[in-house]
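Researcher: Next sequence.
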Amino acid sequence: MKHVLFTLFSLFAFTAKAQTFKNPESLFDPTPYGFSHASSVSGPGELVYISGQSGGLGKEHTLSNSFREQTKVALQNIVTVLDSYNLKPENIMKITILIVDHSPEKLKIWNEEIRKVWKNKPFPASTLIPVPKLAIDGMLIEVDATAFKASK
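Model: Next structure:
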């Protein structure tokens, strides 16, 4: 049964024609918070799953004590992975953000930094999950993503 569902999902995912981002008017406007309520992909292409990227800088994975700095680095790490597929942030359909000891101040920083990367593009669908701790001591944020690369 799982194989049938996966096959159906795969057929559906790869038989559509475009990316769409939706924010139904009957729901609150999520754009001030850096996300869209929903995104979809239609058309031939490739889904790209990006593992959780932390705020660790470079191959040494150097972690700053600053939440803002780790947020900038995590977003840049996402962009680096996207670049390896010749994609841009607007190709991301869904992100999940894990924030250690989440607070209104950290949400404000996240919103400021995501706007610098997405600029005036539609925001992806998003889930933010407050957590008490991440995989490595000192990690303050982790962001994973699913992107879509259309076939040419």
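Model: The CA atoms of residues 54 and 136 lie 9 Å apart. The helical segments are 2-13, 67-84, 104-118.
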